[in-house]
Amino acid sequence: MANWRRIQISQLCELIVDCVNKTAPVVETPTSYKMIRTTNIKNGRIDLSECRSVSKETFEKWTRRASVLRGDVLLTREAPMGEAGKVNFDSHAFLGQRVVQYRVNPEKLTADFLLYSFRSPDLRYQFRKHNGGGSTVSHICVPDCLKFEIPLPTLGEQRGIASVLSTLDAKIDLNSRINAELEALAKTIYDYWFVQFDFPDVHGRPYKSSGGAMVWNDTLKREIPAGWKAGSLDDLGKIVGGSTPSTAYRCNCGQDMIPWITPKDLSNNKENKFIARG
């Protein structure tokens, strides 16, 4: 890597196009013409499942600068800043606000390597460095979208690096799907046990449907299996509230210190069931 040259991205792409900086008029009825918004780009992927639809006339007007083609890489300038995804579909899609489109020069750069470069700590540092000042919302100014620098190996090395990373991504996707199926199964079991009360009895028969004894519970205002009772989380353990360590003391801050979690960390972690220190 020490021998890789750092090249400005404008020298490696055939096309770098900003979006039309106003909101396209959408239609209520779904069409084949989709607007890619910043919220549709996340974790290296572009999800068209929740795209808004427009008319053919609007689509043609909003793609007068360039069409979105398979292999293009899209980058969000704001809300959120710095998310990237590769176009892996053939569809009538166009850029929504605050999205920039990159089309690589195939003789110099591969689209996959560009995508993973955008997701690297190096480029994420550059995003923050080019964060437009004077605004409470983090954003990248359009001219700066041409100035990012990429450490550039040979095309063969680019393909090899992207292949390894894409294999890891595929494994992560598989694990995520397995986790989603297990979560759905857990919800189903919970519903049987604690909503329908049709869990298996000692003979393997559904409890309630096989005549298991039910009694009325005044606290829950419903029937529950005989021998069960209503309780609270406080019955199961100690519940405490957190507080923010003072930043006035340097001993509370630092990479090697004990990590602490804020409500924002939890709200930004909706897709994961676990939080680990990175």
Characterise the protein shown here.
By secondary structure, the chain is α+β, with helices and mostly antiparallel strands. It folds into three domains: 5-153, DNA methylase specificity domains (Adenine-n6-DNA-methyltransferase TaqI, Chain A, domain 2); 154-195; 196-267, no CATH class. 25% of the residues lie in helices and 18% in strands. The chain is built from five helices and 13 strands. It has helices at residues 56-62, 111-118, 121-129, 155-194, 263-267, and strands at 5-8, 13-18, 33-36, 41-42, 45-46, 52-53, 73-76, 84-86, 92-95, 99-104, 149-152, 214-217, 222-225. Strands 2-10-7-8 form a four-stranded antiparallel β-sheet, covered by helices on one side. It has a three-stranded mixed β-sheet with strand order 6-3-9, with helices on one face. A two-stranded antiparallel ribbon has the order 1-11. Strand 7 (73-76) and strand 8 form a beta hairpin. The chain starts with a strand and ends in an 11-residue tail after the last helix. The model has no long low-confidence stretch (mean pLDDT 89).
